[in-house]
Amino acid sequence: MNILVSACLLGIPCRYDGSDKEILDVVNLKEKHNLIPICPEELGGLTTPRDPSEIRDGKVYSKMGIDVTKEFEAGARKILEIAKEYHCELAILKERSPSCGYGKVYDGTFQGKLVDGSGKAAELLAKEGIKVIGESKVKDLSL
Ligand code: SF4
To answer: Which among 16, 44, 108, 141 could disulfide-bond with 52, CB atoms 3.0 to 4.6 Å apart, if both were Cys?
Structure first.
């Protein structure tokens, strides 16, 4: 199966601070599946490292107050193109990210508070019928 995966979960250092968030349960899926690493923020044109961002009122702002909604939405559209090209029905995306988070994201105050909602890429993929799960749910998958 072709599975889209947040690149940072596979050990690629594409997070805002130049780090990764490798999760072995996710990496190990490569034994049986074709994992396709994607980073919507980089594909939307943002640099690594970059200022961290959060969603507020449907828009995305960096911690310095710059509106980066356009870049986040461009990245989301590119991820969707990749998902379609590879006929992906499942995406495993990094929880709480303003791009990749599904179901819960930070509230836009940069104080670590979570609210209901999804990141721009996760939201678009789910809207297009692709199943999105976070890394903590990988153990429950029967693939
Ligand atoms: Fe990871 Fe997604 Fe953030 Fe890229 S945009 S660093 S893949 S959580």
So the answer is: 16
Give me the pLDDT at residue 54, please. 98
pTM over 0.90: yes
- Reported as a single tens digit per residue, the pLDDT across 116-132 is 999 999 999 999 999 99
Place of tokens 């995306």: 93
Q: Is residue 42 part of a domain?
A: yes
Instruction: Look at ligand 1, atom 1, and give the residue with the nearest C-alpha.
Output: 8
Query: By residue range, what is the domain housing residue 60?
Result: 2-137
Q: Is the CB of 10 under 6 A from ligand 1?
A: no
Can you tell me which atom of ligand 1 is nearest the CA of 38? 7
Where residue 44 falls (left for φ over 0; alpha for ψ -120 to 50; beta otherwise) is alpha
Residue 93: closest CA among 85, 77, 107, 104: 104
**Is the minimum distance from the CB of 94 to ligand 1 under 6 angstroms?**
yes
- Structural domain total, the chain: 1
